[in-house]
Amino acid sequence: MNTLGTVPIHGRSAVREARRKILKLADALGVDEISATRLAAATSEIGRHMTPTADVPDPRLVVRLAHSPSGLRICLDFHDDNVANVAQRIINLTDGTSHLPAGQPGVRAFSRTLSIPPPSPAMLAKCESIIMEKGRELLMSELTSTNRELEASFERLRREKSDKQRMESELNIGRDIQRNLLPLVFPPFPERSEFDIFATLQPAREVGGDFYDFYLVSEDHLCIVIGDVSGKGVPAALFAAVTKTLLKSRGAMDPSPASIVTHANEELEHGNENAMFVTLWLGILHIPSGRMLYTNGGHNPPYVLRSDGSTEVLKRRHGPVVGAMDGLAYREDEFTLQPGDVLFLFTDGVTEAMNTDRALYGDDRLVALLGGLSSHAVRAVADDVIDDVMRYAGAAEQADDITLLCLSYAGASLAQSATLSVELQNDLSEIGRIRTLVATFLSERQVVKRSQGRLFMVLDELLSNSIMYGYDDSEAHPIGLRIDHRANFVVCTISDDGKPFNPLEIAAPDTSASLEERVVGGLGIHLVRQMMNEVSYRRVVERNEVRIVMEVETQTP
Predict the structure, then answer these.
(1) Which is nearest to 204 in space by CA: 348, 345, 349, 405?
(2) In the CATH scheme, what is the code of domain 417-551?
(3) Domain 181-409 is in which class?
(4) In terms of DSSP bridges, do strands 98-99 and 195-202 run parallel, antiparallel, or are they unpaired?
């Protein structure tokens, strides 16, 4: 016997949700329409007559599958104290059987036998996910509970601070909550050489309605999403949080972007008294092939920056904004990323940014910028766009949230990717040996000497920093160096177990000052920043990790 899970059964909305799940379960198992209708009706009868008691303060329906000589049985278990008067009605709706399961005093079981084959392990897992799936009511209940906690915290602040201080504190808390809902560690998947991702969100206020997300659905599939909720402030941020949760919950078990967005639209539309909505773009990348399925629900068309320098716009939209109208079936399309291509997603805070004359930044300016970028490293693309938007806006106040998500695709072919992993001791004499190994590796990959020389200068600086300043003892310590060559980029990661130190926090020197006036230090890291397309630092499991990305030239074979 397989217990699929339990669902709340007290309250009108909970009864509707339980009935919906029973119908979805019956449909997944291939149950005939009459039997499915009877099971759903029995669920409604149970729910309408159950009330909380001292023994059962939170009534729940237990759904089980059992095998019998005549076929598969769907069993509905519940405490029977308050439904004795309708037991015969429930028996008539099922198959006329009712019994008290052994070892479960006070629990009555009704079941209906179905002439269908036993479910496979995969089908059982799908049935469990249907029963355990969080519906709109539960999600809204969790959101309401979180909101109550926030309100309690805000009430304490009201008693302790002035109105102005209280408002500032509340907005800061909201900003932190919103940021914590977003992936903020980059690179997010350093062990994957087939792709790279960078995203950034700059709210117009302390909190806003933009969001982004990305996660591996499986070893070979990556889901990415970007969205923009109508309105501003805390209401938009809460709606964005619910949307993001719905998409990720559904995306974990659904391979179709169209189906995921359709489901989210139905859930968001119900009970949407404030008529809020969200534009969103969701895609699922098949990592080995570069094939991406996507659905656009009223969002800005993204761009594909091809490796040959051309720019392609994904114009198709597959439905209107999400959450505004029920009964919609969203569509989906596909395209293919080639090694070296970059997918650029953004919200309308980019193209609708205004200058002091209230003129819009516009799509034409964005396309021209993307077509003339000097680097396709994901962080460099995002930084160049943000910098250009800010220069255009000048002193004008930011009117809308600005969100970008960049995905670069290197491909899974060994012809496009190779890795060198070496270890050295914290001894300056080791740098010469490392130079030789790296030069051999890059020469085999047809990287030209000019690019090799730039990389050597950066590696010398970073490795010297680790060796000279990373340790307070005289013991030997291993330092790891990993170099990945991906299409037209080299990605280097230096890892050591030295004391925590972020070299990127060193202030850039004033190069306009004379040598006598300059503060000692910082010039080497300044050169690293200037010479590399991307530089990042993070502390991972008691280790410093510095990652650099550099676009390289290669000889034509």
Answers:
(1) 349
(2) 3.30.565.10
(3) alpha beta
(4) unpaired
Q: Which of 267, 250, 335, 329 is nearest to 297 (CA)?
A: 329
Same fold, 181-409 and 417-551: no
CB-count exposure of residue 493 (10 Å: 0-12, 13-18, 19+): middle
**Phi, psi (degrees; rounded to nearest 5) at 479:** -120, 125
Report the first-to-last Cα separation within the chain, whole angstroms.
64
Exposed/middle/buried for residue 440 (C-beta within 10 Å: 0-12, 13-18, 19+): exposed
Positions in the chain short of pLDDT 70:
1-2, 10-13, 49-59, 67-71, 73, 78-113, 115, 134-139, 141-142, 158-179, 191, 205-208, 412-417, 487, 507-522, 556-557
Q: Which neighbouring-strand residues pair with 486?
A: 417, 489
Q: Which of 421, 515, 498 is nearest to 462 (CA)?
A: 498
Considering the entire predicted model, what is its pTM? 0.55
Count, in order, helices (H) and strands (E) of the chain.
14, 20
pLDDT at 226: 97
Q: What is the C-alpha to C-alpha distance for residues 423 and 440, in angstroms, rounded to an integer?
A: 16
Residue 357's pLDDT is what? 93
pLDDT value of position 518: 43
Q: Token pair 């397309």 is at which residue?
A: 533
Q: Could you give the CA distance from residue 220 to residue 162 in angstroms, rounded to a whole number?
A: 53
Q: Which residue has the tokens 């040959």?
A: 308
Name the CATH topology of 2-133.
Heat Shock Protein 90 (3.30.565)
Strand-by-strand arrangement of the 489-496 sheet: 417-425, 478-486, 489-496, 543-551, 534-540
The domain limits of the chain are 2-133, 181-409, 417-551
DSSP tag of 330: -
Q: How far apart are CA 272 and CA 232, in angstroms?
A: 16
Please, is 199 exposed, middle or buried when counting C-beta atoms within 10 Å of its C-beta (0-12, 13-18, 19+)?
buried
Q: In sequence order, what DSSP letters do the residues of 213-282 get, joined into one string? A: EEEEEETTEEEEEEEEESS-HHHHHHHHHHHHHHHHHHHTT---HHHHHHHHHHHHHTT-TT---EEEEE
Q: Check residue 335 and give its pLDDT.
A: 96
Identify the bridge partners of residue 335 per DSSP, sorted by sequence position.
Answer: 292
Per DSSP (E only), the strands in 278-416 are 278-286, 291-297, 303-305, 311-313, 333-336, 341-346, 402-409
CA angle 385, 317, 402 (to 5 degrees): 25
With a CB cutoff of 8 Å and minimum separation 6, the contacts of 434 are 422, 424, 459, 463, 481
